[in-house]
Amino acid sequence: MTSVAVTSSPAYAATAIDGCTIVTRPTATHFTNCPGADLSLASLPGTDLSFANLGGANLTGANLGSATLRHANLAHANLSTVLLGGRDLLNTNLAGADLKLADLAGADLSIANLTGSSLNRAQMNSANLSSAILNTSVLSGADLTGATLTGATLTGSRLNRAQMDSANLAEADLNGADLSRADLSGATLGYVSSGGVTGRPSALP
Known about the structure:
Elements: E1 4-8, E2 13-17, E3 20-22
Antiparallel strand pairs: 1-2, 2-3
């Protein structure tokens, strides 16, 4: 990251970082459009990145405190170790994203697409993942304590050693998932689909 510029408008200001213009007051037709951008270490606290196209972008070390990312495209983006606790990621596309060691505690990831994403050892305690798509995602060692996964699809996902105690998995699809040594103590498993599940959890409800 080498340059930062601010351009003024009558009521708002747009920030440009390495050629990526961060659009203010984004809408479904007017949004930040910077696929593949290098935003590593960028300072974007409180930024509204709703609807943004940041597919394949590098956001490692970026400051996204209080940022809004709902409906954004972050497919195949690098978000490893990024702090997204409590962030609004409703309906965000995170397919194939690198979220290893990311802090997603308390984040709203409902209806988000996390297909094939890497969430190794991510902090996702108390996160809302209702109706999220996590097919073939890797959640090895992830902390999902108290998370809401009602109606989520986790077909073929790797949940080995995941902490899922007190998580709500009602009506979730776990077909073909790896639950080796996963902690499911106190979890809600009503109407779960679990055909072809592999591995033995370390604890069950």
